[in-house]
Amino acid sequence: MSASNLHAVEYQEIGSGQTIVFVPGSFSTGASWRAISNLLSERYRTISTSLSGYGKTQERRVPGGDHMADQMNVLETVLQKAAAPAHLVAHSFGAWAALLLAVRRPVKVLSLTLLEPTVFEILSLCQEHALHQQVLDLVDRYTSDWKATDAQAVRHIIDFYGGEGCFGRYPPSVQEKLAGQTATNILDWQSGYASGMRLDEFAALRVPTAIVCGTASHMAMQRSNQLLCEYLPHANLTMLEGANHFMMATHAAQLTEIIVRHISASDRPVAI
Q1: Does residue 185 contact residue 145 with C-beta atoms inside 8 Å?
Q2: Do the Cβ atoms of 81 and 15 come closer than 8 Å?
């Protein structure tokens, strides 16, 4: 096993074989994949990282910058270090960054497995205005409470993803950790909405893509993932029964099966 700073980008590697890069979302580090990546390291070379501002990856976003480009730079740095075509397996905001990387940059990605990518802007682009407004209202309430020095403003996001009362069921130490990452997460939301998403970009993507969404997730998440699958020409959608956004903690075995099945069906490089 090895770890390297990589110009302040988290990089952890274990195993051998085809390369899988695991990308976490907001509030998370590569450790969030451990239940899945450790098991798969018996068959694959598994690499994990963290997005900008989390774990050992230095925050590189500055006011006025291209924040999604900053996140893509993190992932591209990891792929350059890996020095091999890779399967990208990513969650939430990390899945959105991984998708944009595959769409916009000439990287060698063998496949994408995206767990609930946060592509909420697609709701507006596809005239799903009521659902999109629910997301906008959530983010506005979250941001306003945080600016008003509400130390637990992050509860709005956690309950959106995990269901009403989810944040309150966490132990105080977890609540405190999440609250401490609020500023970074708000920047994540701002970054995602500054991506300049265009529906026509997705039609050209040749990478086999598996999208996984939980049946217990918010309807805005479910519908945005369904729409994304419709616009990606080589994508399939799996609805994971009983799961919500935090499916990695509750459905690791099922996700491992989905990942292996998708990778096995995508066993050759695809030109982007």
Answers
A1: no
A2: no
Supply the angle between the helices 129-147 and 219-231 in degrees, to the nearest 10: 120
List, for residues 227-252, the tens digit of each pLDDT value: 999 999 999 999 999 999 999 999 99
Whole-model pTM? Answer: 0.93
In a 13 Å sphere around the CA of 165, the CA atoms on its Cβ side amount to: 1
SS3 content of the chain, % helix, strand, coil (to 5): 50, 15, 35
Alpha-carbon span 227 to 92, nearest angstrom: 16
Least confident of 7-11, 19-23, 107-111, 178-182: 7-11
Q: Kindly state the average pLDDT of the residues 204-209.
A: 94
The pLDDT value recorded for residue 62 is 84
Report all structural domains of the chain as residue ranges with CATH numbers, in order of start.
Answer: 2-125+197-264 (3.40.50.1820), 129-190 (no CATH)
Burial 160-178, CB ≥16 within 10 A → b, else e: bbbbeebbeeeeeeebeeb
Rounded Cα distance between 202 and 194, Å, is 17
**In whole numbers, what is the pLDDT of the chain averaged over residues?**
93
- Other CB atoms within 10 Å distance of the CB of residue 237: 17
- How many other C-beta atoms are found inside a 10 Å radius of the C-beta of residue 221? 24
Phi, psi of 210 (to 5 degrees): -110, 125
At 170 the pLDDT is: 97
Taking the C-alpha atoms of residue 171 and residue 124, their distance in angstroms, rounded to an integer, is 36
